[in-house]
Amino acid sequence: MTLTKPDWPALYVRHRDSMYRVARSALRSIGRPDLAEDAVHDVMTSIIADPDRVIANPEAYLVKAARLRALAIAKLHGNCRGAPWDEDEHPSDGFEADAVQRLDRARLYQHLHQEVAALPDMQRRVIEEVIIKERTATQVATEMGLSKSRVSQLQKAALLTLRDRLGKGPIA
Question: How many CA atoms lie within 13 A of 13 on its CB side?
Answer without folding.
Answer: 4
